[in-house]
Amino acid sequence: MHACTIPKESRVLKRTTKGWRTSQIVLHAWADTPFSGVFFNLRANGKFEYFTSGLLQSFEAGKWTKTQDTIKLEYLDSKQSIVRINTIVIDKQTSTLKFDNDSTPVQMRLKVMSNALE
Question: What pTM does this model have?
Fold first, then answer.
């Protein structure tokens, strides 16, 4: 049996952002891949987490803001410094998330399971 591992930076970030995750989830999306599940949550406090489970574990977190149909994500490291910025749009026809500069087919995108943003 294989052990699941999560990189050190991800473990530290998960610990330092623990308090963020007490806030209500306003958007929840997920995708299932052959080796892991992928989960994405936007929270009412303006924070988000993006993580995977299974053999290939990871954890990312940051801040989000919404302008019309676009959601801006600022990914943070464990010192709360911005490490990258990305945007997503909710594809209302397919109920999926479309990340900027991502050519993932609709069938493999994160599926929106609950959305209280609107």
Answer: 0.85
